[in-house]
Specification:
alpha/beta; about 15% strand; globular; P-loop_NTPase; Phage terminase; 3 domains
Length: about 250
């Protein structure tokens, strides 16, 4: 027997190890084995293979496609085309919101649609613990991409975003201490969730202070990139990883 093998819903196979054992024998003839699946827990063999591959312990190539990326590449537009429904940004946002709200828990939604395996083995930190550890008194600067904004040509969107950055974000950036190091954390999304930029001041005792947050809702990737670069370029003595989300 020869040919490429695709193991669909790999994380839900009763004995993935046995299936892989049989399939991988074909690779000696140049065949390929592909595992396609949503996650089924952090301790599942599927997640272990992904973790080992990213660590360079296995030769698999990992391709992560969450619901936000699928939508950006036309998933909902295609669904509308096939089902003969009109597409609109509002309908797309409502469709995604319904998908997420219909799941039993937020953790289930993150696992099913955002490639985040559910925690197990006592490693999960409860929300109450995280909230007690969180301290923040700085302002939250919010920008929401309306349907009208998203329908504009990119050059016009860029001008609108620049005006908001200059008017709202720049004055806060100018208050940052110039003698201290700074870095930035990001939680990246597109339309179903917020993209959040969290600049951090690194104090002399190595503790971090978050002077402000920037929240972007339903903002196209180019304008998210524009906001990110605007902030990072103005952080005093900045330190950050230079890859954009999704790059390897």
């Amino acid at each position: 027997m020869q040919g490429n093998v695709i193991i669909d819903e790999a994380a839900f196979q009763k004995d993935l190890a046995a299936v892989l054992k049989a399939a991988l024998a074909l690779t000696m003839w140049g065949s390929k084995v592909r595992l396609i699946s949503t996650h089924n827990g952090i301790e599942n063999l599927f997640n272990t293979i992904i973790t080992d591959s990213r660590a360079g312990k296995k030769r698999y190539s990992v391709h992560r496609i969450d619901i936000e990326l699928a939508i950006s590449e036309g998933l909902y537009r295609r669904i509308c085309q096939v089902t003969k429904k009109p597409w609109s940004p509002d309908a797309e946002a409502e469709w995604l919101a319904n998908l997420l709200s219909d799941t039993a828990t937020e953790e289930d939604a993150r696992e099913e649609y955002y490639c985040e395996p559910k925690n197990g083995g006592g490693t999960y930190l409860a929300r109450s613990i995280r909230e007690r550890a969180a301290r923040g008194s700085g302002p939250v600067l919010r920008f929401t991409g309306t349907a009208e904004f998203n329908a504009m040509p990119e050059i016009i969107r860029a001008l609108d975003m620049q005006e908001w950055l200059d008017k709202v974000v720049l004055p806060v950036l100018n208050t940052l201490p110039q003698n201290l190091r700074h870095c930035l954390g990001e939680d990246f999304a597109r339309s179903g969730h917020l993209t959040v930029f969290a600049p951090m001041t690194v104090n002399d005792d190595t503790t971090r202070t978050v002077p402000f947050l920037v929240e972007l809702a339903n903002v196209p990737y180019k304008q998210q990139e524009q906001a990110l670069f605007f902030i990072c370029d103005r952080l005093p003595r900045r330190r950050y990883q230079t890859r954009w989300p999704g790059e390897r």
